[in-house]
Amino acid sequence: MRLDRGLLVTGTDTGVGKSVVTAALAAALAEAGVDVRALKPVASGVPAGEPGEDAALLGLAAGHAPASLHRLRTPVSPHRAAALEGVAVDPDALLAWVRHNSGAVTIVEGAGGWEVPLAPRWRVSDLARALGWPVLVVAADRLGVLNHTLLTVAAVRHAGLPVAGVVLTGAVDPDAAPMDNRAELLDLLDGVAIRRMPWLPTLDRTSLAAAGRGLLRGE
C-alpha cells in the first residue's frame, strides 16, 4: 500500500468504514514512532459542542486532540448542512488548516464518497486534487462492491491522482457467495493493492494499531 507524506481516504459510500480504516493506519504509524496526524476537515451530524465521533476516533488513534475544522450539526451532505447553519466552508481556508495541522505523515478523511460536495462547486474530489496526495478507497465487502469500487478508482485516476489501494471492510456478504470480491478486484484493478479488514469489536488503540499493521503489510 502506497503511503507517503500524505494520504486522502475516501469511500464508495457513506458508512463503509473510512474512519476506522483511517484510525487503524494512524494508530499503526503512531505506534511505530511516526509523527502522524489524522484529520477530519469537515463532518456533519455532529452534536453541538462535541468534536464528532470520527475526529475523536482519529485523534485517539494518532495520539493527538480531535482535529476537525467544520463540525456541522445537520446530518446531511456537508455543503447542505453548512448552508442550513449559515456556515461558510472556504476551500482556501480549509486547505490552509490541513497544512497547518500536518505532521510528517498526514491522513485526511473525506466525507462520504468521492464526489460529496463540501461547499458550493467544491467537492471531496477537489480537496484531493488540491492536496495532490495518493487516495485510499474504502468499500464495504458486499454485493455491488465491484461496480462501486471500479467507478471510484476510475474517478480518482481521471483526476490524475495515484490510487494508494483499496480496503474492503466488514464480513463477507453471504449474498455475494461464492464470489471473492478481493480476488475479483485484484484481477480487475491490476497493480492496485487490495486489502481486507474485518469490523473490529473494540476501537482501542491496540486493536486499531494491529489492524493498521495488517493493512500496511498486506495481511
Write the topology of this structure:
Blueprint: E1 6-11, H1 18-31, E2 36-39, E3 42-44, H2 53-62, E4 70-72, H3 78-85, H4 91-100, E5 105-113, E6 117-119, E7 122-123, H5 124-131, E8 135-140, H6 145-158, E9 163-169, H7 181-188, E10 194-197, H8 205-217
Parallel strand pairs: 1-5, 1-8, 2-5, 3-4, 8-9, 9-10
Antiparallel strand pairs: 6-7
Describe the fold and architecture:
The chain is an alpha/beta fold and about 220 residues long. It has a domain at about 5-35 and about 100-215: Rossmann fold (3-Layer(aba) Sandwich), CATH 3.40.50. About 40% of the residues lie in helices and about 20% in strands. The protein is built from eight helices and ten strands. The protein has helices spanning about 20-30, 55-60, 80-85, 90-100, 125-130, 145-160, 180-190, 205-215, and strands at about 5-10, 35-40, 40-45, 70, 105-115, 115-120, 120-125, 135-140, 165-170, 195. The chain has a six-stranded parallel beta sheet, sandwiched between helices. A two-stranded parallel sheet has the order 3-4. Strands 6-7 form a two-stranded antiparallel ribbon. The longest helix has 14 residues, at about 20-30. The radius of gyration is 16 Å and the shape is globular.
CATH topology of one domain: Rossmann fold
Oligomer: single chain
What is the CATH class name of one domain? Alpha Beta
Helix fraction bin: 25-40%
**What do the pLDDT scores average to?**
94
Percent in strands? 15-25%
Biggest pleated sheet? 6 strands, parallel
Q: Which structural traits does this protein have?
A:
219 residues, alpha/beta, six-stranded parallel β-sheet, two-stranded parallel sheet, 10 strands, 21% strand, globular
